[in-house]
Amino acid sequence: MVKISKRTVDALVSAGGQPAYLWDEGLTGFGVKVLASGKKRYLVKYRAQGVRQRWFFLGTHGQLTPDQARKLAQQALAAVARGEDPQQDRAASKVKKRLCDLWQLFSREHLPALKPATQRDYRYLWERAIAPALGSLETQAIKRSDAERLHKRWRNTPYNANRILALLSRLMTLAEVLESRPQGTNPCRHVARFKEEARNRFLDDDELARLGSALRDLCGVGDLSPSAANAIRMLLLTGARLNEVLQTQWAWLDINRRIIALPDSKTGAKPLYLSVPALEVLEDQRRVAGDSKLIFPSPQNLERSVNLRGPWSRLCAQVGFVGVRLHDLRHTAASVAAGSGVSLPIIGRLLGHSQMQTTQRYAHIGNDPALGAANIIANGIADKIALP
User: Is the residue at 91 inside a domain?
Assistant: First the structure.
């Protein structure tokens, strides 16, 4: 036995026109079967509830990578350990062929493993777009024209249209794995995605000053909570993503190192570097947050993070911003850093840039340059928005 990998699977051939097998040395029961035709199928061999040995096919090599097949095998064997029978469950699932039934399976067994933001987005796309259009159709009956029609229906919002198509494609791939439709028939495969224009909106000095005034004015008349105002200031001063700021907890704050150690983010665990102005905002926020474990709790419920959607809409109306998103505060921080001569590798490290190869290439850079960049950003913003 050897470890199943792309190299070992690619090298596997049948002998004398008879099927051949390759079994994984690390995961008992996980294997690959190669037919005389050369087709290779991943499988799991197990016994469940005292029945004779079952062979549970996971999918075809090429449709699945070895790592994807291994994860499916682990899930199947975990189900066996819980007293379930994956083969029997699959047979029962074939009775339910509608896309809405497939979604129920996906939301129960696959969705919980994804990040909370992804779960929320998937549910929104399903409920708002896919379910009304295709939910009642049989999974095997969905054609490329159905996928293309749904995609084009959302052409006015290209980003959402492409995400809808991606989720539908993922469901169709799952249908193939479950053998609810033939292998290699994903109807989304040849639907051309819309071009997505990158948005690089950032606030100039005058807009920052007006935003700072609006933050103070709305707080003064009670139309904006201090927690919401401080969260928005923190977004500007750190260049952090919205969820990174809203989910932060006091336990993650390390004053000595001047970071908030985020255990997870879009790019994994990362430090959120704190400038002197950012520390001043946090000092004020300690008074506002009271006994909440969250740094920026909702004024109505200290166990939940503040919701910035309504506050940001009121601020935009007050300032006269049109089409400015909270995410554009992150672009503003990056533009201030770049305009002040901070190198792109340091900006990438500071903001947790999505192009991880850039960040990894400079993984040896210590905290001091990033903290210096954090202060450059904050000093370029703090005097504009006039922190309280």
Answer: no
Does 359 have pLDDT greater than 50?
A: no
| CATH assignment at residue 352 | 1.10.443.10
**In this predicted model, what pLDDT tens digit does every residue of 197-216 receive, in sequence order?**
766 678 888 898 899 999 99
Domain that holds residue 18: 6-84
Question: Is the CB of residue 146 less than 8 Å from the CB of residue 190?
Answer: no
- Look at residue 168 and tell me if it is in a domain: yes
CA dist 25 → 3, 12, 61 (Å): 5, 15, 18
pLDDT tens figures, 44-54 = 999 876 667 88
Do residue 232 and residue 112 come from a single domain? Answer: no
Per the structure, the count of domains in the chain is 3
Tokens of 37: 């035709």
Alpha carbon distance 385, 388 (integer Å): 9
The rounded Cα 104 to chain-centroid distance in angstroms is 20
Name the pLDDT band for 340 (thresholds 50, 70, 90): low
- Report CA dihedral (228, 233, 237, 238) to the nearest 10 degrees: 10
Domain check: are 369 and 234 in the same one? yes
- What does the alpha-carbon distance between residue 348 and residue 149 come to, in Å, rounded to a whole number? 39
Rounded to the nearest 5 degrees, what angle is found at the Cα of 117, between the Cα atoms of 226 and 67?
A: 150
Q: Do 302 and 158 sit in the same domain of this protein?
A: no
Identity of the amino acid at 132: P
pTM of the model: 0.54
Q: Are 237 and 284 in contact (CB under 8 A)?
A: no
Sheet containing strand 30-34, edge to edge, reads 20-23, 30-34, 40-46, 54-60
**Residues 166 and 228 placed together within one structural domain of the fold:** no
Look up residue 29 and give its two tokens: 């029961």
| Mean pLDDT across 158-163 | 93
Are 172 and 237 in the same domain?
Answer: no
Q: By CB neighbour count within 10 A (0-12 exposed, 13-18 middle, 19+ buried), where does 61 fall? A: buried
